[in-house]
Amino acid sequence: MLDRGISVAISDQRAAPRRQAGALQLRLALLRCSSIVLFFAVWAAFSFANARYLKVFNPVLMPSPLDVLRAGVELVESGELQRDIVASLSRVLQGFALAAFVGVTLGMAVGRSRVLESLVDPMLELLRPIPPLAFLPMMVLWFGIGEASKIFFIAYAAFFPIFTTTLEGIKYVDPLLLRAAASLGASRRDLFRYVVLPAATPAIITGLRLGFGLSFFVIVAAEFIAADSGLGFLINDARTFFLVSQMLLGAAVIGLIGFGFNRLLRLLEARLLRWRRTAWS
Q1: 130-171 pLDDT, tens digit each
Q2: Do 252 and 68 meet the contact criterion of CB atoms below 8 Å apart?
Q3: Nearest to residue 134, comparing CAs of 114, 106, 153, 116?
Q4: Number of neighbours of residue 166 by Cβ within 10 angstroms
Q5: Which residues 6+ apart lie within 8 Å of 134 measured at CB?
Q6: pTM for this structure?
Q7: Residues 77-106 as b or e (16 or more Cβ within 10 Å = b)
Q8: What residues contact 217, with CB distance under 8 A and at least 6 apart?
Q9: Distant-in-sequence, close-in-space partners of 211: CB < 8 Å, separation ≥ 6
Q10: d(CA 254, CA 82)
């Protein structure tokens, strides 16, 4: 009986940190949900007060969340919203995939070679400060008003954060880790595979998250200029007819899609970096 009581006490003691971690995660999830609810409550209250009392804006220009929801239902029933989402997602994913492949590959190559860094880095540093929107008219002239100009425009905009974070992650791996692995007989290939790449993965995933956010930022601008479908086209077309509810709907859908993909990348990061812990873990 004594042994059984001791084993039960030990198991309870081990389970206590897991219960505490679960309770903390639940509280954080409730806090996040409450912040979203608070945002919509403030929006609805301001829209109502503006329409009835304040008159700061024309009520048409400050629709409530319910007005935006009704506009979304109408566009879903007509099929326009699904068409625009598919069009924008297709362009974003193609451009982002191209930027991710080139940015990660080139960043790894430049990070491992000082000669290549000396050749490539100055040219990219000249181009990086130039806003991507400055190249949009030229890309339309070079590639036409079809899909190619939008895809390459997205790829150009998303390339720089992916390349920069990959380069920094590869270059600044802890030398102690490299020396420790080398002293155990690791080859250059093993060093890269088992030390450099895992150490640089957090920076690479951060660059991918930044690059994907920029992809949606610039696709809206691209679809403003030359498109007959997409969420940017939806926003611009609604602006022409003062359909503010549809404009806000397009922005909200972009935010939801970006949030969803950011969560997927965070889950991938947590899966690949199970060894990493935050400062408050």
Answers
A1: 888 888 888 888 888 888 999 999 999 999 999 999 999 999
A2: yes
A3: 153
A4: 28
A5: none
A6: 0.82
A7: eeeebeebbebbbebbebbbebbbebbbeb
A8: 157
A9: 96, 99, 100, 103, 158, 159, 161, 162
A10: 13
The vertex-106 CA angle with 187 and 213, nearest 5°, equals 120
Residues 109 and 166 sit within 8 Å (Cβ to Cβ) = no
**Residue 166 in contact with residue 207, Cβ under 8 Å?**
yes
Q: Which of these, 80, 104, 52, lies nearest to 210 by C-alpha position? A: 104
pLDDT for position 208? 93
Angle subtended by helix axes 147-171 and 114-127, to nearest 10: 130
Q: What is the pLDDT of residues 104-132, one digit of tens each?
A: 999 999 988 889 989 998 899 899 888 88
Cα angle 232, 77, 230; round to 5: 15
C-alpha distance from residue 252 to each of 2, 170, 257, 258 (Å): 61, 36, 9, 10
Locate 178 and state its tokens: 């490299």
Using the 8-state DSSP alphabet, how is residue 133 labeled? G
Cα within 13 Å of Cα(82), Cβ side: 6
Non-local (6+) Cβ contacts of 159 within 8 A are 99, 102, 103, 211
Report the greatest alpha carbon distance in the chain: 84
Nearest to 167 by CA among 156, 159, 175: 159
3-state class of 62 per DSSP? Answer: coil
25, 93, 269 from 138: Cα distances, Å: 49, 22, 36
Tokens describing residue 12: 């309870």
> Which single residue is written with the structure tokens 């690791």?
186
CB atoms closer than 10 angstroms to residue 123? 9
Tokens coding 72: 């979304």
Amino acid sitting at position 3: D
Cα dihedral: 264, 270, 273, 274 (round 10): -150
